Amino acid sequence: MGTGVEDHSKLPLINVLGYRSGWQWYAKQTGQPELLNRPQRSVDNSIIAYQMAAQGLGIVLARSSFMEHHSASTTLVDLGLPRCDTDEGFCPVFREFAATTRRP
């Protein structure tokens, strides 16, 4: 059974330590404090966070410039949640599994 966009609410938030504009900031800026009720994981660099999201382990705030790269756009999907203007230009992304994905 696959996980689609409608199932993103079950995924934890992935925080990158050291970013000023993390999930707390995003939730405040977008008026979505309920986001912070989700389980959260923290890592110390963005590459690990992107890899975790690409493996379906959570949702990460990705730099919009990162999402312009072909490799990112083939493994991660913009959730379509509000974007925020920051120096980093973050948007929430996660891995979308095809609904037809089957387990062996």
| Poorly predicted runs of 5 or more residues | 1-6, 98-104
**What best-fitting shape do the alpha-carbon axes yield?**
globular
- Fourth CATH level, the homologous superfamily: Periplasmic binding protein-like II
Helix and strand element order: EHEHEHHEE
User: In total, how many domains does the architecture comprise?
Assistant: 1
Oligomeric organization of the protein chains: single chain
Average pLDDT rating: 75
Q: Taking strands numbered 1, 2, ... along the chain, how are they ordered across the largest sheet?
A: 2-1-3-5-4
Number of strands: 5
Specify the helix fraction band.
25-40%
Put simply, the count of helices is: 4
User: Mind telling me the C-alpha Rg?
Assistant: 13 Å
Name the structural class: alpha/beta
Strand content: 15-25%
Characterization of the model:
This protein is an alpha/beta fold and 104 residues long. Helices cover 26% and strands 19% of the residues. It is globular and about 30 Å long. The protein starts with 12 loop residues before the first strand and ends in a 10-residue tail after the last strand. The model is unreliable at 1-6 and 98-104 (pLDDT under 50).
